[in-house]
Q: What sequence folds into this?
């Protein structure tokens, strides 16, 4: 059986300088990059991945294989939509690894931010391994959007002695966790509005990029402005990627 070799490389969440030295070393060894085209942001993020390769690889012994990632259906139950979508992406990965990667090649997926955070690449590779495909792979961590957001706002994510939670906007709609700060990602619904607590927000869109927008302050003072900014940015660029840290104003500051 052909053994496939792969690297899953975290490229950081927006700034080409978020690339780590470990990632640069890995990039230099790769022969075949699999570059996803996905969603409204595809042209911009595709370009960034290519820019990273051109900037950090000092030879031309590699090739790029573009592939389309289908949009996830949003008309059925959330879990079944996600599992159908994942099966479709798994079939694409299977084809790529079978047809585009030889025994002597080293393939790579360049993952936005960090591969361990809201990203399906590791899960899909594990599914393929479980189905019998022989894949040897390494994961290179990247600077996640959570770290980038905290750094750009110069804040700590947790208060001393408290946990913090990272969650999707879908989960936030069910309510805030009882304790600790919250980082919210994947917000397509302005889920920060009308939460029943007195909160501070540290919000960032396109963090680390030239288009970065940051706002911080009391949520009730800022929520209309943020909703407005999100709408305008989405209209101008065609897509938005933003996240935010929420903290209770009543919690003791460190
Ligand atoms: C599918 S998740 C991928 C997260 C990624 N693996 C990471 O480590 O940040 C995409 C979400 O991450 C957040 N995100 C990613 N990049 C961002 C950036 N540059 N600025 C703000 N939020 C970002 C947004 O909440 C977006 O909806």
A:
């Amino acid at each position: 059986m052909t053994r496939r070799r792969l690297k899953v490389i975290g490229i950081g969440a927006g700034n080409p300088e978020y690339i780590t030295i470990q990632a640069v070393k890995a990039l230099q060894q790769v022969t075949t990059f699999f570059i996803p085209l996905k969603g409204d942001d595809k042209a911009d993020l595709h370009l960034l991945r290519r820019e990273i390769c051109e900037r950090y690889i000092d030879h031309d012994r590699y090739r790029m294989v573009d592939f389309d990632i289908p949009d996830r259906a949003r008309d059925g139950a959330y879990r079944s939509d996600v599992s159908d979508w994942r099966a479709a992406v798994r079939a694409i990965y299977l084809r790529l690894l079978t047809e585009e990667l030889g025994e002597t090649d080293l393939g790579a997926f360049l993952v936005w931010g960090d591969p361990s955070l809201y990203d399906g690449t590791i899960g899909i590779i594990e599914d393929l391994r479980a189905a019998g495909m022989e894949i040897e792979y390494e994961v290179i961590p990247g600077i996640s959007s959570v770290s980038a957001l905290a750094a750009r706002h110069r804040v700590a994510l947790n208060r001393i002695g408290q946990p913090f939670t990272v969650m999707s906007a879908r989960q936030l709609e069910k309510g805030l966790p009882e304790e600790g700060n919250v980082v919210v990602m994947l917000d397509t619904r302005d889920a920060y509005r009308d939460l029943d607590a007195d909160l501070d927000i540290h919000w960032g869109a396109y963090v680390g990029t030239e288009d970065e927008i940051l706002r911080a302050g009391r949520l009730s003072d800022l929520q209309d402005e943020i909703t407005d900014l999100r709408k305008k940015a989405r209209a101008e660029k065609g897509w938005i990627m933003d996240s935010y840290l929420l903290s209770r104003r009543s919690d003791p500051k460190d």
